[in-house]
Amino acid sequence: MNELLLIIISAVVINNFVLKYFLGICPFLGVSKQVEASLSMGMAVTFVMTLTAPVVWLINTFILVKFDLRFLEYVTDIIVIAALVQLVEMFIRKTSHGLYRTLGIYLPLITTNCAILFSALFLVLRGYNLIQSTLFGFGSGVGFTLAIVIMAGIREELDFADVPEALQGAASTLIIAGFLALAFMGFSGMPTK
Amino acid sequence: MRQYILFKDALKGLWKENPVFRQLLGMCPTLAVTNAAIFGLSMGLATFFVLLCSSIIISIFRRVFPHQVRIASFVVIIATFVTVVDLFLKGNFPEISKALGPYVPLIVVNCLILGRQEVFASKNPLHRAVADALGMGIGFTLALIALASIRELLGSGTIFGVQILTLVGEGGRFRPWIIMLLPAGAFLTLGTMIGISNFFTGRAAKKSACH
Asked: Which of these, B199, B139, A144, B35, lies nearest to A136 by C-alpha position?
């Protein structure tokens, strides 16, 4: 139990996907203008990541390893992610109109979000079991959401500041992300596995 | 005239539409592997190879892909070439492969590559697609080397492993900036470089085209 909790905490703050591994930088720069949109994007990523992790784990363990097809890992991973995103989109559109309106436009973009592919590769590298993989996927998604919402909060405040023209947009966002990464380093003193 | 167009296709990737500084594409590997110049160079070349090969294939077969599944087809072609690069690195340069780790497979979702297929290779004949891929690939590689060299120089006093600044312990005056080797250093350096490039070209970089 303790160990499972550590996996989540580690994925959320200590090894934060955005600020430590530089994953999902494109949405991090592109969507982080408003808190509300960032939250939706984060939720969509978390949702897909939590689903991807167990599916990838099952395919990897019961098909790729069993039939010695490990070299197909990247191709299968990306197909699983693309198919899953498509399924999730259709499912949400049929069942919940409100949720579709919130997450809808972000879902197709998620296929090429490197954070999801990375989490799929990472859980195989780390040798997690099914439950650990699912929790890792969930934790990574929450970590991504945390980072992008914090960034959006800062950028909303920054709208009222007098930023030099050359630094507007991506440049200032990256520099702020640098300070956030420094701040998040403070978490690395916590026990990890 | 034809040569002029090819020249223009290739040249725009170097500065005017540089993937890193102007288009903000392929940010994840750009930030992640540039703590030493040699890793920046390897990552740049790996991406270059995948971009060139997939542009050639996709440009040749551009009339074959059905419109609805073109993105999925592109991604599968790209993933195949990434597997080739990954196995090549593992076999011939095990140390570099280990240092780059999971960022080599992440080339699959590098939006620079998918972006060029969607915007250029799938709409243009082979020779123009090759010129475009050459320009973008070289522009990406140069940007990575520039970023990695700055970080390596300030972080450990070396460039490509050659000592440039003498460290305090060896009779010099330079104390390495450890922050440059950490994730924070990557964000700060790239942010500053984009700021400087905006300052000299006088306009803010285009908004990121991928998410």
From this structure: A144
Q: Is B124 on the interface with A (CB under 8 A)?
A: no
- CA dihedral of A39, A41, A47, A48, whole degrees rounded to 10: -170
Instruction: Report the complex ipTM.
Output: 0.84
Distance CA B187, CA A29 (A): 12
C-beta separation of A84 from A44 below 8 A: no
Residue from B18, B27, B201 to probe the interface with A (highest A Cβ count within 10 Å): B27
Per residue in A42-75, pLDDT tens?
Answer: 888 898 899 999 999 999 889 888 888 888 888 8
Give the dihedral of Cα atoms A86, A89, A95, A100; nearest 10 deg: -170
Distances (CA, A) of B141 to A135, B44, B100, B116, B208: 36, 4, 15, 15, 19
Name the one residue in this structure whose structure tokens are 């700021």: B195
Query: What pLDDT was estimated at residue B59?
Result: 94
DSSP letter assigned to residue B15: T
Q: Are A29 and B83 within 8 A, CB to CB?
A: no
Q: Would the pLDDT of B48 be above 60?
A: yes
Residues 6+ apart with CB under 8 A from A181: A19, A20, B182, B183, B184, B187
Compute the count of residue pairs across chains A and B with CB atoms less than 8 Å apart.
147
Query: In this complex, which of B32, B79, B111 lies closest to A21 when CB atoms are compared?
Result: B32
A39 close to A145: Cβ distance less than 8 angstroms = yes
Q: pLDDT confidence of B1, banded at 50, 70, 90?
A: low
Please check the confidence at residue B91 and state whether its pLDDT lies above 50: yes
Inform me whether the C-beta atom of residue A90 falls under 8 Å from chain B C-beta atoms: no
More confident residue, B210 or A168: A168
